[in-house]
Amino acid sequence: MNTHRFTRRAFLRGVGVTMALPWMESVNVWGDEPKKNQPASEAPVRLCVTFSGNGFQSKEWWANGAGAAMELGRVLHPLKDFRERMLFVRGLYHEEARKGNIHSSQTGNMLSGAPISSGGEIRSGTSFDQLLAQTYGRSTKVPSLVLACEKSNPSVHKNYSMLYSSHISWSSPTTPTPLELYPALAFDRLFKDESSPADKSVLDAVLADAQDLRRDISAGDQRKLDEYLDSVREVEKRIENAGKRGELQGWRPTLEKPNIERPADGIPQDIAEHMKLMCDILVLGFQTDTTRITTLKLNNDHSALRFPNLPSVQQPGHGIDYMIHHLLSHSDGEDYLKVNQLFMEQLAYLARKLDGIREGDRTLLDNTMLMHCSSMMVGAAHNNDELPVIVLGGAGGRIKGGRVLNYKDKPERQLCRLFMSMMDKMDVRPKTFGDAKSPLEEV
Amino acid sequence: MKTRAANALRAPSRFRVLPGKRWLGLLWIPLVVAHAFADQKQVFEQTIRPVLKEYCITCHSTEKQKGDLDLERFTSFDLVKRDPDVWEHSLDQIRDKEMPPKGKPRPSPEQMKQLTDWLQGTLDEVALASAGDPGPVVLRRLSNMEYTYTLRDLTGVESLDPAREFPVDGAAGEGFMNAGAALVMSPALLQKYLDAAKDVAAHMVLTSTGIRFSAGTSSRDATDETLAMIRRFYADFSDTTEQSIEVGGAGKVSYKGGRLPIARYLSATLEERAALSSGSKTVADVARERRLSAKYLGLLRTMLQGKDPSLLLDPLRAKWREGSLAAADIEAWQRALWRFANVGHLGKVGGPKSWLEPVTPLAAQHELRMKLQPPKDGGDLTLYLSTSDAGDGSDNDFAVWENARLITPGRGELPLRDVRSVLQQMTRHRDAVAESAVRCLGAADEAERVQGQPDVTALAAKHSVDAKVLAGWLSQLGLAGAGALKLEPLLAKKTESVQNYNFIKGWVGDNALSVLANSSDTTVRIPGEMKPHSIATHPSPQLASVIAWRSPVAGNLRINGSVQDGDTACGNGILYALELRRGQTREVLAAGESKGSAVIPMGPFERVPVMPGDVIALVIDPRAGNHACDHTPVNLTLSDGKTEWDLAKHVSPDILASNPHADRHGNSAVWHFLSQPASGADAPAIVMGSQSLLSKWRQTKDASERARIAGQLQQLLQDNAAAAKASPADRELRNQLLSFNGPLLADAWRSLKAQPDAPASPYGLDPAMFGKHPKGGEVAATSLCVKAPSVIELRLPASLLAGTELAATARLHPASGGEASLQMQVLTTKPAAASGLRATDASSAAEAGAWNSSKPAVMFDAPILVHDGSEARRRFEKAFDDFRALFPAALCYTKIVPADEVVTLTLFHREDEQLRRLILDDEQTAELNRLWDELHFVSEDALTLVDAFEQIWQYSTQDGPNAPNGDKRLEPLREPIMQGAEAFKKRKIECEPQQVQAVLDFAPRAWRRPLTDREQNELRAIYDQLRKQDLPHTAAVRLMLARVLTSPAFLYRGEKPSPGPKAAPVSDWEIATRLSYFLWSSAPDAELTQLAVSGKLHDPDVLTAQARRMLKDERVRRLATEFGCQWLHVRDVATLDEKSERHFPTFLGVRADMQEEVTRFFTDLFQGNGSVLSLLDADHTFVNEALAKHYGFEVKAEWQRIDGLRAKGRGGILGFAATLAKQSGASRTSPILRGNWLSEVVLGEKLPRPPKGVPVLPDEAPQGLTERQLIEQHSSDEKCAGCHKRIDPFGFALEGFDAIGRARSKDAGGLAIDTRTSLTDGTSIAGFDGLRAYLVNTRRDDFLRQFSRKLLGYALGRSAQLSDKPLIENMTKSEAHRVADLVELIVRSPQFREVRGRHFIANN
Q1: Phi and psi for B1074 in degrees, rounded to 5?
Q2: Is the peptide bond before B100 cis (omega within 30 degrees of 0)?
Q3: Distance CA A150, CA A50 (A)
Q4: What are the backbone dihedrals phi and psi of residue B1167, each rounded to the nearest 5 degrees, phi first?
Q5: Which of B114, B136, B689, B1033 shows a CA-CA span of 20 to 30 A to B37?
Q6: Which residues contact B336 (CB under 8 A, 6 or more apart)?
Q7: How many Cα atoms are found within 13 Å in the side-chain-facing hemisphere of B94?
C-alpha cells in the first residue's frame, strides 16, 4: 500500500531547501520499495555534439584495440579514463564537403552533409542535432542549446561566407542557428523564467503581424519570414511550458533547479575557463531536463583563438604571436598537440561531470551520446576524405563503447550514416539523411 | 519576354540627363552589341558546339558530370541563354587557364579566341537583355548595427546598445552584413529581441503630452534630463558665469548663471548705434547677428533714448550718450535695489516671497557705524564725512551728523567734538611718560631685587616718577607679584562624556569650544580622533582655545609641543601659536597653520627663561572664524632640567578635577583652560625674530647693562625716527607701551576731562563747528549740521584707532522740508564730487538658525535719506521701480533645485518671470512652460511634497512657535500641497490616453510605413488587454511599445512585390526605407518620411536630391563603417588582438585610431562628394595625435585633416595603417596577404583556389633571409607560382611598411627592404608610389568597377549579378568619378527602385 505518498515537491518543501536528489534512492529511504521494471522511469537519451575546427595534429589522432586495452594517440590521452565507453570512428566523410574551397565550405555542412552554396547565398542543410530538436526536443522547455566559445567572423572568404566556418548547427537549410557565447545568457536561456502572460500577449500579437505580412510577400521572403514565425511559436511554447515541468511519464530529473550561481556577465578571459563554464551549463540543462540536445562549438574552423598562456614547446618564449589556433594547425607540431589536448581535456571534464551524476542504475554519461568531431583530419592539409569522430557515452545502453570502427576501406562510408545511427538511438528514423540512406549497423 | 529594365535601356534618354542637365557618363555599350542573338545562335551551332564537344564534354558530359558540371545538356542556344551562370563560371575557368586541365587536349589558340569571344558576347547579350533586374533580394532582418542605429535614431538616445550581446551577424552577398541570406532568426534571438524591446521601453519617459526617451531607466534619470534641458534653456538666454551673491541670512553664496548679460546688450546698442539710427539695421537684425533677444534689445534702446525724467536713469542715459555707459554702472544699482532670499523659506509666514526681491535704500535716518582701520604704515587716518544732495539739487538739504563719536571698548565713548582737546592732553602725558622711562626702569630694577611686594609709592617718590606710571611698568614687567597676569575667562562648564564615551571628559564653552581628555587605552572617534591618554581642543568661531601653563618655578625651560588637525575631512584648518606671556608682554615662540593630518611639532625651544607666574600658552584659533571640523589633538611638555611637566600625562587622567588643574608635582593651578577672542585672521601670526628691549632688560641681571638698555628704550619711546628704525619687536613694544589702552597711559585716559576750546591741531575737528545750524539756530551740542553738498575732512592719529568705531546718526535736519534728500556717508577716500546720486552697497544681517531666519534686515552703507511720506521719497521710489523694471539682478533661478538649503520644502523652484517678461517671445515661453510642466510631471514632485511636508512638520515640532504641536508658520502650506497632490493624481490619469496615442504615433516611424486602421486597433487592443490583465498603465504602455519593437514590421524590411512575374517599383515608403538604410543604416528621417507621405519619392529627381542631401549628413558615417570599412576588411581593426605585443607594444594603443582614420576618410569622401579615385591617390587623410605619432607626423591635439601626404609616401587606402596592419601577420609583414587583398578586395580579381597541402611559412624569417626572400622561396614552389606571380609583387611594393603600417627601410631582422618588383603583366614598379601610379593609370577601370560592384551590392543587399553589368559599367565610366554620382546612378537604377514580381520566373 502506498501509505507514504511523497511528491518530489512536497519532499523538497519538507526539507526546506533546494537540493539535488541522488536519483530515486533518496525517496526510498523515506518511502516505498522501488517498483521493478518501470519503463516510464527510464531516463531519456541525450545528445551532445562538440566541435573543434582546423582538424588535429597529423600523427596523434588514432586508437587501436578494444575495451580497457584500447591504445590511444596522444591527442586522445585526456580521455583515456573513458575508453571503455568510447567509439573511435574512422574513415567517414562528407562528399559535399570535398567540393568547395577549404575551411568554410568544409564546415557549414558538418552535421548535415548537405551541399553548400557559394557566392552571396547562404544555404546548407538542416543539421541532425536540429532535426532531433525539431522532432524530439519539444518535450523539454528548451528544444536545444547551441553554444560557442568563439565568435563568428562576419566576412566572406574565398567566395564562401565565413558563417559556414562558425556554424555547424542549422535550424533550416538557410538558417544557421545563432550561437550563444555568453555563459550568463546561456544560463538564462535555460533557467530564466521572467516571461509573463503579458509577454505571451505580445508574442501573440507579433505572430499575427507576421501572418498578415506573410500574405503579401514572395515565396522566398515567406521562407525567410517563417524563421520568425517558428521562433515566435517556439518562445511562446516555452512560456507555456515554463510552469508545467516534472510530470514527464514518471521519470524525474535529478535536479529541479540549477545548483550553481548564474555566471557573471561577459565572456571569461581564459578560454579553458570559458569552455568549462559552457560545459557546466549544458550538463545542468541535461540534469534538470531543461533540454536534451546541446551543441557546443569550442572554436571556429579557421579559428583565431589564441593560447598565450600555453607555453610554446617549439618556439619557446613566442607565446602571444605564435600560439594561434589556425597557425598552429599548419605548423602541426608539439604545440598543436598541446592545444588539441587542451580541447580534449574539456571533453574529459564534460564526460567526467556527466559520469558523476547518477540516474538510476546508470550515470548521465551512460544516457548520453557525446560526439566530438572536426571538419578536417589534419589542419595543415585541410584533408577531409576521412573525418575525426569519436562518440562517448552509452545512449541509455544502446551503444556499446570500447571499440574502434574503421570504415576506411569500406563502401558507403558517409558520415551521415553515423548521424542516422545516433538519431535512431533517440527514436528518430528518417528514411534518408544527407547523402546517407541507412544507419551504420555496427553502432 | 522583355523586362522593364531592358525597355529602359532601349530608351536611353531616361538615363542620360540628370538633374542639372549634366552628362554623367557614357552608357555601357558591349563590344559585341552589333551582334544580335541571332548571330550568337548561329556561331554556337556552327562553331562552338563542335569545340565544346571535342574538348569539354569528354569530362563534363551528362553522364560523367565532372565537377558537377554538365555541358552536354546545352543542346540549343536558348538553353545557353537560360543558364548564364554556368557559362560565366566556365569563361572564368578558361581565362584562368584552369580549363582544360593540364595534360588534356587543348583547342588551338584561334579556337580558344572564338570560344571566349562567343562566351563573352553571349553573356553581354544576356546581361543587356536582363539589365536592371532587381534580382533576388531576400527579406532582410535589420542587421545588429541597423537595429542599433534605428533605435538610437527613433529614441534620440545615443547610448542605447541593445544588440550588445546579440550573436554576430554573418556576411553574404558582396561580403556585407546587410544581406538577408546571412541575417537569420531563431527562438533564442527572438527572445533577445523581446528582451531588448522591453529594455528600450524601460527607457521611455511618460510625459504630460506623450512620451520621450531617456538615457537612463529611472524616473530620477528622466527628471535630471528634463532639469538639464531647462538649465540649457536658461543658459541660452542668460549669462552663464559663476558669481558670488549675498543671500539673505546665508551670507555669500556661489551661484552660476541666470544673470542678465547686460554687457552684451549695452555694447550692441553702442556699437550699432549708427546703423540703428540710420535704419540700415533693425533691432531684429542686430539681435540676430549677435544672438541676443530682439525684445530686450528694443526695450533697452527705448529706455536709453527715452526722455521721461528719472533720477536714476537720466545719469545712465547721459553716460550712454557719451558712449561710456558700462555694465558696472548698472550692476552697482542692481546690487543696491535687489536682494536674494533663501528659496527654502518661500511661502512661510513672514518669509520672503521670491528668491529675487526688490529692496529700497531709502531711510529717514541712518545709524552710521564704521570700524576704523589703522593705516598699514602706522600713520594717520583721514576720513571724509560726505553729505551729497542725492542728485536732485540741494536747496533745502541740511544734514545732521548727530552725536558723532568714537567708541573704544574699555575706554568709553569720545565725542568727535572733544577729540582734538583729548588728544592734546594725552600727547602731553605721553611725552612725560617717555621721558621718565629710564628712571622708572631704575625703580623696577630695585623692585625686582626686594623680597615680597614692593612699595610702589615709596619707590616712585624715590625715583621721582609718577606712581601710577611706575605701577604700569611693574605690571608690564610682571613684577607686580605672582598672579598678576590674569588667565581668564576659564572654561567653567564640564562635560562628563562625549558621544556616549564616558572616558572622554572635559571643559567646554559654547559653540563646541572645549578641551577634552581621553583617560582610556582606546582610540575613539568623536567624530575627530581621540588617541588613548591624550588631550584635544576645539575653538569656536568667535573664541580661540588657550591652554596655559603657569610657571611655578624660576629657571630655563626646554619646551616641546605638538598640534594636529584631527578632522581633515572638512573645515579650513586651524591657526596655532605657542607664546611666552609675562605681564603684558607676549612673545610668540611658534605659530603656524595646521591643515591635513600631519602632526606638527613645535620646538624644542631651549633655555627659555621664566619667572614664577610666567605663562606658556598654546593658542588654537579657528582660522578666519570658521571652526568646522577643528578638532585638534595637542600636547605640551616643559622641563627645567629638574622637573618635567606633560600636559597629557598630568591632565588626561582627571581633567575635570579642577580648572586650573594641578601638576603632578604638588603645584596647584598650573594648567589653565581658557579662551580669548579669535583673531579672525586667515594666516598665522608673525613670530618675532628678535627679542624686544624690554625682554632683554629682563633677562639680564647686570645693573649697568640694564641701565644701557633702559636708555635705548627711553630713546625708542621719545624719538619717532629711532622708532621707525627699530626691530619689529621693539616697534610692537613701543606701540604697546604708548597705547592709550596700554599699562602706562590707560590710567591717565580715565582721568581726562574734555576742554571746550582746544588750540588748532591737524587732528579732530574744531569744537566750534558743533551745535549750530548753518543758517543760524542750534542743534545738539555734539551734533554737526551741514548744508549739502559738503565734505568734512577728519584726521585721526594711529594711537586713537585700535579697536575704535566711529558712530553717528545721519539724518535730515527737520527743517529741510519734504523735497529734501541726502546721502550721508563716511568715506576713507576723498569723493570726486560731493553732489550726485551714488549706488549704495547693501548687506544682510547674518542670523542664527537657518530655518528661523526669514527676512533678515538689509543694511545700506549709504541709503538715501528722505522724510517719510515726502514727495522726495515718492520720486525715488518711482526711479527705483523704473530701473528694476529693466534691470533685474537675475533673469532666472538656474539652480532650480535649492540644494544648499538646510531645510526646504521646495523640490524645484521656478523663478523666471523676468526672463519671460524681458527676453522670451511667446514661442520660447511656451517651450519653457512645456519643459517645466514636464519636469513636474516626470518628477511627480506634487506627490513627493506630501511626504516632505510631513517630515518638515515633524521636524518643526521640536522647535519654533508652539512646539511641540508643529510650527504654526507652516500651516498655510499644508492645504495647497495636499490639493496639488490630488490634482496631480487626477492629471496623471487624464494623460494616459495621450501616452497611448504617442506610442501609436511612434509605431509608423518604427515600422517605416503608415499603419492600417486594423493595425492601429490591434495596437490599442493589446494595451486594453494588458490593462485587463491587471497591469498598471505604465507597464501596459511599455509593453505596447515593446510589442511595436518586436513586430516583424520593425525587425524586417518587408517589401510587397507586385503580383505576377514582372518587376515593379516599390512603394514610396519602401523606397524611403531602401535609401535610408543604404546611406544611414537606419530608418528614414522626418524629411524623407514627409516626401513618402506626400507621394513624391518615386520621382527619381526627388529621390536623387534626397540621396545627395543624406550624403552630406553626419549619419553617413555609418555608410563609412558598414560599407567602407567592411569592404576593405578593416571593420574590426579597432578590436584586432592578433598582433604580437612583444614586437608591437604600441599597437593596442593606436588600433582604434587606425580604424577611425578609415571611417573618417570615407565619411569625408561621401560628405564632400570626393572622387572615388582619391581612395587610391589622396593627398590627405585624418589623424589624431596618437596616429600621427604612429605615422611619424607632427600633429598635436584632436582629429584633423592633414594634407601633403604624397610627399610623405602615403595617401589613400594603400597607406592606411589599418589595411597594412590587417593584411600582415602577428609579428611580420605578409606580402602574400597584402597582395591577395589588393587583388581580390581592391581590384576584384578572381584567384583560383589555393592548392591543398600548401607548405607553411615560419612565423619569423630565418636568419639572413628577408621576409621577402622567404616568400619568394615559397612562391617558387611550382604548385603555387601561378597565383603568387599575380599577387606577391603587389605585396612586395608595400614592403616599405611594417606589420602595423609604419614606414620602414629595414625589416624586422635589420635587412634592407627592397620594394622593386615586376608585375605579372611585365610592368616594373618600385614601392608605394610605383604601385599607386600603376593602379591609378593602368588598373583604374578595374578599381572603379570593383568599387561600383561593392557599393551596388551593399545598396541592394545581394551579390552583383550578370544583369547588373550595364549599371556597373556605367558607374565605372562616370565622369570625374564623384562618389555621389555613383550613388545617384544606383539610386536611379531599376534594381534599386524596383522589386521582382511575386511570381518572377528566372531567365524569362
Answers
A1: -55, -50
A2: yes
A3: 13
A4: -65, -35
A5: B136
A6: B359, B361, B839, B840, B841, B842, B860
A7: 22
* B 1007-1036 residues inside an 8 A Cβ radius of A: 1015, 1018, 1022, 1025-1026, 1029, 1031, 1035
What pLDDT is stored for residue B341 in this prediction? 84
Instruction: Examine the pLDDT at B301 and tell me if it is beyond 50.
Output: yes
Of B138, B1043, B1049, the CB nearest to A213: B1049
Confidence of residue B903 (pLDDT cuts 50, 70, 90): low
Tens digit of each residue's pLDDT (9 = 90 or more) over A298-331:
999 988 888 877 877 777 765 555 678 888 888 8
Question: Which of A155, A233, A318, A332 is most worth mutating to test chain B (most B CB atoms within 10 A of its CB)?
Answer: A155
pTM for the structure as a whole: 0.72
Contact at CB, A155 and B1126, closer than 8 angstroms: yes
d(CA B534, CA A46): 74
Q: Find cell 590521452 and name the residue.
A: A77
Cell triple for A363 = 550515470
Query: How far is it, in rounded angstroms, from Cα B1221 to Cα A437?
Result: 49
Q: How confident is the model at residue A11 (pLDDT cuts 50, 70, 90)?
A: very low
Chain B environment of A185 (Cβ under 8 Å)? 165, 192
CB atoms within 10 A of CB A330: 19
Q: ipTM value of the model?
A: 0.77
Check residue B1137 and give its pLDDT: 81
Q: Do A205 and B1227 touch (CB under 8 A)?
A: no
Average pLDDT over residues B695-710: 85
Is pLDDT above 50 for A9?
no
> What's the pLDDT band for B883 if we cut at 50, 70, 90?
very high
| Nine-digit cell string for B511 | 559653540
Best of B68, B184, B1252 to disrupt the A interface (most A CBs within 10 Å) is B184
A202/B1046 Cβ within 8 A: yes
Question: Using the beta-carbon criterion (under 8 Å), do B1043 and A221 form an inter-chain contact?
Answer: no
Burial class of residue B827 in the structure, from the number of CB atoms within 10 Å of its CB (0-12 exposed, 13-18 middle, 19+ buried): middle
* Rounded Cα gap, residues B539 and B681, in angstroms: 14
What mean pLDDT do residues B1181-1199 have? 91
Continuous H helices in B1008-1140 = 1013-1028, 1033-1046, 1048-1051, 1068-1080, 1086-1093, 1100-1112, 1117-1119, 1126-1127
Q: How far apart are the C-alpha atoms of B283 and B217, rounded to whole Å?
A: 45
Q: Per-residue pLDDT averaged across B993-1015, rounded?
A: 95
Quote the pLDDT of residue A135.
82
What whole-number distance in Å separates Cα of residue A351 and Cα of residue B1370?
Answer: 61
Any residues with CB less than 8 A from the CB of B995 and at least 6 apart, and which? B206, B207, B210, B211, B1033, B1037
- C-alpha cell read off for B158: 545615443
Q: How many CA atoms lie within 13 A of B909 on its CB side?
A: 25
Residue B17 has pLDDT above 50, yes or no: no
Residue type, B992: E
The residue among A95, A121, A172 with the most chain B CBs within 10 A of its CB, best to mutate, is A121
Spatial contact of B1247 and B1283, defined as CB atoms under 8 Å apart: yes
Confidence at B66, pLDDT banded by 50, 70, 90: confident
Q: Are B712 and B691 in contact (CB under 8 A)?
A: no
**Helices (H), ranges, B160-272:** 187-202, 219-237, 262-271
- pLDDT of residue A23 exceeding 80: no
Tell me what pLDDT residue B1097 has.
93
Q: Which of B425, B416, B402 is nearest to B764 (CA)?
A: B416
Instruction: Return the DSSP state at B498.
Output: B
Residue B68 has pLDDT above 80, yes or no: no
